[in-house]
């Protein structure tokens, strides 16, 4: 009923969204839920950055004027934060590929690769490396922030991750979910490897390779030998 009132472009977007998130056969229910959760883990910190640095909402007191750091002069901080946040969400969305069809076979609209099977290593190696890096980095940031230090182990001029006021508590609330990004991605990678490996084994068992028989077969009525 509702579909009849939606604009065709909205319907196409909805169907594309459903296809992108639809799990393949054999995906455990926990893996499907974990893959859907990963982009949501990154969303709070992305929204916090955009609200603070792009729209300049008063979520941080005494934000230093040189917060842009080493950014080139042609790239405003507001645009950089937007690009960083969008890139973070896209990177987090790749976790869905570990349970969806486009993580096992390239979409047909891709040139050259469209319709081909995704090699297991091409998905598993970057996912495993990303899970390890995210786990180490996020854990290190959490430990140093708890001690009142920055990632270099020094006392920062402005300590954002604190529970002393509502602004600091909001910052902690926004960034704390990132601690689960790496472990969840690692669990999804292991499940992906197991599923692809078992699927490959089942396919090999269902379609065994027959080696052509070599040798000599005698003719039925004559003594001639027929070489295959």
Structural class comes to: mainly alpha
**Low-confidence blocks of residues:** 210-222
* Overall shape: globular
Number of domains: 1
Proportion of strand residues: under 5%
What does this structure look like?
The longest helix has 27 residues, at 120-146. With 228 residues, the protein is mostly helical. It has a two-stranded antiparallel sheet with strand order 1-2. It is globular. It has one domain. Helix 2 runs antiparallel to helix 6 (181-206) and helix 4 packs antiparallel against helix 6 (181-206). It has helices at residues 8-21, 29-54, 77-93, 120-146, 166-175, 181-206, and strands at residues 216-218, 225-227.
Would you spell out the secondary-structure blueprint of this structure?
Layout: H1 8-21, H2 29-54, H3 77-93, H4 120-146, H5 166-175, H6 181-206, E1 216-218, E2 225-227
Antiparallel strand pairs: 1-2
Helix pairs in contact: 2-3, 2-5, 2-6, 4-6
Properties at a glance:
about 55% helix, mainly alpha, single chain, about 230 residues
Question: How do you describe this structure in short?
Answer:
The protein has 228 residues and is mostly helical.
């Amino acid at each position: 009923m509702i579909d009849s009132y939606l604009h065709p472009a909205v319907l196409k977007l909805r169907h594309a969204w459903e296809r992108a998130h639809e799990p393949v056969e054999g995906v455990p229910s926990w893996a499907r839920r974990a893959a859907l959760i990963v982009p949501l883990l990154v969303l709070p910190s992305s929204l916090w950055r955009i609200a603070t640095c792009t729209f300049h909402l008063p979520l941080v007191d005494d934000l230093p004027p040189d917060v842009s750091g080493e950014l080139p002069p042609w790239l405003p901080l507001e645009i950089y934060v937007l690009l960083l946040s969008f890139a973070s969400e896209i990177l987090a969305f790749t976790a869905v590929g570990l349970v969806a069809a486009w993580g096992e076979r390239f979409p047909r609209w891709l040139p050259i690769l469209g319709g081909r099977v995704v090699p297991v290593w091409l998905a598993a190696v970057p996912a495993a490396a990303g899970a390890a890096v995210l786990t180490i980095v996020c854990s290190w940031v959490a430990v140093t922030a708890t001690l009142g230090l920055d990632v270099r182990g020094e006392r920062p001029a402005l300590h954002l991750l604190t529970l002393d006021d509502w602004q600091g508590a909001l910052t902690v609330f926004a960034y704390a979910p990132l601690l689960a990004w790496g472990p969840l991605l690692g669990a999804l990678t292991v499940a992906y490897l197991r599923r692809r490996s078992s699927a490959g084994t089942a396919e090999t068992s269902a379609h065994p390779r027959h080696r052509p028989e070599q040798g000599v077969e005698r003719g039925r009525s004559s003594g001639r030998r027929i070489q295959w």
